[in-house]
Every structure is written in C-alpha cells, then in structure tokens.
C-alpha cells in the first residue's frame, strides 16, 4: 500500500500538473487569451452567471400532420407518373388531414395500391404498424390516412430535426456554449449566455425559412383570388409587395426548387442599387432543375416564397444558368442576414412559438459569482482550519489535496468544455466539504491502529487499506445519486450533478492516492517512531 516507485510518483505529479494547468485559463479574462491567438480550454459560465437569454419554444405538432399530407401529395403524383404503365389520376384532395384521389381507369386499382405501399412506408418505429392507412372507396377512389403511430414517429423526427436546426442557427450567430435541449415531446429549451437582447434570437428562431420557387399562374382571375377561389392545381399565397396592389397571388402547387436544394445563402448587396439582398447557391440537382425551368418558361413570372409568403415574383427574362439566384424584397442588412442564416441552416420542419422567455442581466450573474466565490472561500478556510487543528501533519496533506482538488475539478471541466452554473457552484462547495471525508476516515483508522499498539508504518498502511473499502462504498452511493440527477434532471439539476460527479472522482483520487503518496514519501525520509494524529 505504501510502495510508490519513482515512475508512479512522477506519473501522479504529471497528471495533477496537467489538470491544474488546464484550469489556469479559466482565471484569465477571455479577451486576454484571445489576443494570444491560442484557443485555450476554459470553463464557460452558464446563463445564471454570465447573464443572457432563456427561451422555451413549443412546436405546433398539428403542422407536422399537414406537412406530411402535402409531402405525400407530391410523392403520389410523381410515383403515378414515373413508372410504366403510367397511372392517370384526377385532382388530389387533402381535406380533413386525409389524402384522396380518383383513378381515371378503375382497372389500375391493384397497380396503384402496389405503388402506394412502396411510398407510404413500412412500419412506424418498432410497432410494426404502417405509417399510412390505405383504403379504396367506390372501387376507384383511394383515401390515405396517417396512422397514430406514423404521426407519433413523424413528430419525434421533426422535433429532433428542429432541435438541430435551432442549434445551427444559434451557432451561426457566433454565440458561445448555448444550451439547447428537448423538453417533453414538443418543447425545446434554449439558453444563450452573454446574449442580452433576445429580440434578434427570437426573430431568427421564429422564422421557419421554408423556401420554395414556384411558377405563377398568370391566367388566374383576380376577382376569384379575392374570394379565395384558386384554379385547379394552384394555391393562393399572400404577396404583400405585389406591384399590382393585390395582396394575393396564384402559384402552381408543384415547387420548382425547395430549400433543401440550397448549398449556401449569403447577405450581399445588389450591384445596381446597392440594396441588401440574399444571394443563394443551389446544389447540383437544384442548379439543373432551375436552369431547365427557366429555359422552358422564358417570359413567365415565378414566385420566390419564404414561409408561405411571396417575397417577389420576377419575370424570367432569360435562362438562369450557373446555379445562383438572389432574393430582393426591401431587406435591411440585418433582416437579409437573418434570412440568409435561416436558409443555410435549413428550414424548421415545424413552426415554433415562444411560450416563455426571460433575460438574466450580467449584474445578477456577477453577484452570483461573488456569492459563490465567497461561499467556496469560507468552506475551504473552515475545512483547512479543522484539518490542521485535528490531524496536524496529516491535516496538512489533506488540505493540500483539497486545494489541488479545486483546481483539478476546474481542469476536468475545462477539458470537457463544461459550463459552470449557480447550482454547479453549490455542487462545487459541497464537493469541497466532502473532499476531506476520505482523509477523516483514513486518519481515524490510523489512530485506532496506533491505539492497538501497531507501529507507525503498520498503522498507516492498515489505515489506508481498511478505510479504502468504506470510502469506495460511500462514494459509489454518492455517485449513484449524481447519475440519477444527471439522467433524469435538466438545467440546474443537471449542472449540479455534473460538478458533483466530477468532484467525487477527483476527490477520491487526491484524498486517497495523492495523500498516500505524500505520507509514504515522508515515512521513507523521516522514519518516525511515533506520529501526532
């Protein structure tokens, strides 16, 4: 137990030195470390310490069902035309959350069903149930209805995608260490430390950024549009900046280009007027489709649609080849940049609305930091005084382990790119208080062995050996509580659990292995006949 070869001593000192050095950048202002041109790891301050914005977003899951029906409409139309023999169908209706269409040739019912089975998915999740229920009504009319399990799986997928899109949009804003987590089945929690004005964030996250290019129906009757009546195969969309003064426009349902065909979007300036615009670059598929469509429709207008609202509807004066296009629509530099960020980060699969928001000022965060530092300093001072008075030299070793443990915890958190919150500071203070528990158990066990008449080396060796079992069991139960809080908790509870778990691991190492190494070195050097403990 007290045998420490030189390589082991050197390894322990090197490990502790490395972890302590990782904690140093946390105490240096970030502006200073950035001026060095080196990206050093540091412990980031959470929302309650650095100040910032908190948003709770809720998804409209009903929108998922409507989106699925519209997507299935396009799939059905494409699939029926693509394969041989071609299956002719009448107008498709998507009322009441169902998709229905009539076959022109009733003899093709079996062939149509086979194609529908291919595109409506197999099983929803692990349930084995189909994602769509297919029925034939009146011998030639198909009715497709989303199943409950299919909708549930679609909502789960949409929420996962929405969380990732929110993360990409916030990262594009250049913020550091945002916290973006799912809450329940249809909510997302967003915490952005350091962001004092949440309006730009709300505007960005509230934008679905569903981009579509569609051909305009120039033959649509303006009077019918005003009454909400669209020709077959068309849809009516708002057009606030319509030069004709009519705030509505009829466009073809079939989209030419969609947002998933974009490879990039940037805020730039229009060369002639120097007005802000959003320039887009399409991927290979989108570039080919855009070039083909503009070649076939020279002289006709097409609508640029964002979130089901027409931004502009310019005429195609000549084929647009090269895979690039621009959106002009009375943008400011800020609004154009926000739209560009939203487009290149991907469209939100569901609409998100803000149901709760709050802003934490930096002054409150500074007060929390001061209170946390004061509490930590008082805890360390009281622990150090108690150990010195009670255990003498062995108390000095325990105190050294406590001080090193503080820096080691910060070093591990910096290595893991952790974020320190106010509950995390509470976990920090608790860890300091319990860090000497192991040394108290060891020292008391050494006292007992000395009272039994064992010599110094035997007492120390048995003290560490016998106390280690109790220390291990106590910290395992402690760690189980921390793991449960980490898995089941969120926000402050999880922040507390992270610091607690790191503190348990580091305190056991410093309080047992590190102090045992110090005591073993002293025994070899001094060879004492008695000890004051």
Describe this structure in words.
One of its GO terms (molecular function) is protein-transporting ATPase activity. Belongs to the SecD/SecF family. SecD subfamily. InterPro entries: SecD, SecD/SecF_arch_bac, SecD_1st, SecD_SecF_C, SecD_SecF_C_bact, SecDF_P1_head. This is Protein translocase subunit SecD. Forms a complex with SecF. Part of the essential Sec protein translocation apparatus which comprises SecA, SecYEG and auxiliary proteins SecDF-YajC and YidC. The chain is of the alpha+beta class and 533 residues long. The protein folds into 3 domains: 210 residues, Up-down Bundle (Multidrug efflux transporter AcrB transmembrane fold); 90 residues, Alpha-Beta Complex (Hypothetical Protein Ta0175, Chain: A, domain 2); 151 residues, Gyrase A, domain 2, CATH 3.30.1360.200. Helix content is 51%, strand content 18%. It has 16 helices and 18 strands. The strands form 6 sheets. It has a 4-stranded antiparallel beta sheet with strand order 6-7-2-17. A hairpin with a 3-residue loop joins strand 6 and strand 7. Helix 1 crosses helix 12, helix 4 packs across helix 6 and helix 15 packs antiparallel against helix 16. The longest helix is centred in the C-terminal third of the chain and has 35 residues. The chain is elongated, with a radius of gyration of 33 Å. The mean pLDDT is 81.
Q: Which CATH C-level class of the largest domain is it?
A: Mainly Alpha
Please name the fourth-level CATH homologous superfamily of the largest domain: Multidrug efflux transporter AcrB transmembrane domain
**How many extended strands?**
18
**Low-confidence stretches at least 5 residues in length (pLDDT < 50)?**
none
Question: Averaged pLDDT, please?
Answer: 81
Alpha-carbon distance between the two ends: 19 Å
* C-alpha geometry: elongated
CATH fold descriptor of the largest domain: Multidrug efflux transporter AcrB transmembrane fold
| Class derived from helix and strand content | alpha+beta
Tally of DSSP helical segments: 16
Task: Supply the CATH architecture of the largest domain.
Answer: Up-down Bundle
Total domain count: 3
Strand order of the largest sheet: 6-7-2-17
| Helix proportion | 40-55%
Q: Could you tell me the radius of gyration in angstroms? A: 33 Å
Biggest beta-sheet profile: 4 strands, antiparallel
> Strand portion, in percent?
15-25%
Protein name: Protein translocase subunit SecD
Domain Protein export membrane protein SecD/SecF C-terminal: 351-520
Family: Belongs to the SecD/SecF family. SecD subfamily.
Domain Protein translocase subunit SecDF P1: 161-217
């Amino acid at each position: 137990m007290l045998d420490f070869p030189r390589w082991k001593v050197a390894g322990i000192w090197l490990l502790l030195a490395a972890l302590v050095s990782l904690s140093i950048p946390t105490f240096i202002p970030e502006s200073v470390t950035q001026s060095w041109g080196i990206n050093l790891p540091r412990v980031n301050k959470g929302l309650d310490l650095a100040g910032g914005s908190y948003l709770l977003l809720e998804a409209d899951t009903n929108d998922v069902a409507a989106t699925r029906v519209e997507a299935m409409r396009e799939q059905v139309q494409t699939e029926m035309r693509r394969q041989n023999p071609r299956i002719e169908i009448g107008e498709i209706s998507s009322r009441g959350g169902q998709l229905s269409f009539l076959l022109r040739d009733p003899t093709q019912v079996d062939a149509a069903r086979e194609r529908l089975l291919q595109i409506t998915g197999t099983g929803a999740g692990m349930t084995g149930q189909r994602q769509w229920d297919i029925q034939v009504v009146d011998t030639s009319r198909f009715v497709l209805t989303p199943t409950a399990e299919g909708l549930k799986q679609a909502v789960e997928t949409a929420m996962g995608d929405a969380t990732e899109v929110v993360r990409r949009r916030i990262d594009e804003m250049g913020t550091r260490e945002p916290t973006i987590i799912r809450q329940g089945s249809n909510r997302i929690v967003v915490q952005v430390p350091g962001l004092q004005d949440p309006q730009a964030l709300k505007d960005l996250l509230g934008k679905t950024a569903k981009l579509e290019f569609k051909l305009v129906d120039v033959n649509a009757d303006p009077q019918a549009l005003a009454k909400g009546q669209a020709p077959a195969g068309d849809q009516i969309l708002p057009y606030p900046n319509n030069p004709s003064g009519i705030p509505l426009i009829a466009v073809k349902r079939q989209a030419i280009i969609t947002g998933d065909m974009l490879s990039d979007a940037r805020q730039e300036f229009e060369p002639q007027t120097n007005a802000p615009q959003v320039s887009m670059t399409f991927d290979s598929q989108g570039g080919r489709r855009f070039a083909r469509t503009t070649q076939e429709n020279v002289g006709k207008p097409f609508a640029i649609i964002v979130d089901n609202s027409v931004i502009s509807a310019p005429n195609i004066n000549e084929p647009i080849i090269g895979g690039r296009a621009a959106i002009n629509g009375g943008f400011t530099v800020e609004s154009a940049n926000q739209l560009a960020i939203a487009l290149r980060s991907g469209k939100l699969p569901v609409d998100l609305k803000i149901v709760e928001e709050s802003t934490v000022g930096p002054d409150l965060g500074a007060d929390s930091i001061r209170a946390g530092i004061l509490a930590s300093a008082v805890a360390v001072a009281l622990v150090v005084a108690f150990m010195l008075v009670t255990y003498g030299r062995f108390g000095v070793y325990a105190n050294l382990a406590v001080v090193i443990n503080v820096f080691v915890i910060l070093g591990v958190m910096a290595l893991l790119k952790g974020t320190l919150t106010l509950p995390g500071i509470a976990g920090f203070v608790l860890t300091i208080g319990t860090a000497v528990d192991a040394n108290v158990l060891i020292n008391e066990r050494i006292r007992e062995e000395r009272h039994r008449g064992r010599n110094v080396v035997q007492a120390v060796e048995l003290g560490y050996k016998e106390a280690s079992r109790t220390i291990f069991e106590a910290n395992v139960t402690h760690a189980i509580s921390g793991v449960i809080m980490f898995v089941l908790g969120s926000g402050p509870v999880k922040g507390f659990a992270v610091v607690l778990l790191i503190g348990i691991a580091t305190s056991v190492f410093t309080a047992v292995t590190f102090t045992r190494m110090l005591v073993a070195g002293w025994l070899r050097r001094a060879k004492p006949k008695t000890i004051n403990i």
